[in-house]
Amino acid sequence: MKKRKCLKILQNRNGSILQVVLVIFLVLLTTIMTYGVMMKNACALYRYEKMMDQERVVEVLFRHYCRKTEDQDLLLSGTIHGEAGDIRYTMDDMGSYFIINADISIKETHYRAYMEMNTEDLKIRSFKYLD
Asked: Is the CB of residue 113 less than 8 Å from the CB of residue 128?
């Protein structure tokens, strides 16, 4: 009796096509959604990477500017106006090294940096980004 009931369930094919279509639809939907999320994350990562590269370039140029200005002339507090943005910095002479605090504004981003530079050889002792 149980065998007949089991065979009767297996032979009932009224809903099997609908179930197959539903499973295929769910698999396709999951694949498309996963691909969309991956593309969104890749775009966000690309924007973040581009912003980090821009910050690195500004850091290198700012270091070069400070070293060149102190080597050729006297480095005082001031503002650097560039194509991408502005850098406002203050310089403190601590005797054996300089402390330079900078407010960097590039396009929509704004951040602060702290730099220490030796007075004798003009080497950068430390460079940190502040909150």
From this structure: yes
d(CA 55, CA 33): 33
- pTM as predicted: 0.61
Do 100 and 91 touch, CB atoms closer than 8 A? yes
- For residue 83, give both structure tokens: 């194509």
Cα–Cα dist 106/111, whole Å:
9
How far is the C-alpha of 96 from the C-alpha of 88, rounded, in Å? 23
- Rounded CA-CA distance 43/36 in Å is 11
Each residue's pLDDT tens digit, 42-62: 999 999 998 888 888 888 888
Q: Rounded to the nearest 5 degrees, what angle is found at the Cα of 59, between the Cα atoms of 53 and 64?
A: 130
**85 CB contacts (<8 Å, ≥6 apart)?**
58, 104, 105, 106, 107
Helices (H) and strands (E) in the chain, counts: 2, 5
Could you write out the three-class secondary structure of 24-63?
HHHHHHHHHHHHHHHHHHHHHHHHHHHHHHHHHHHHHHHH
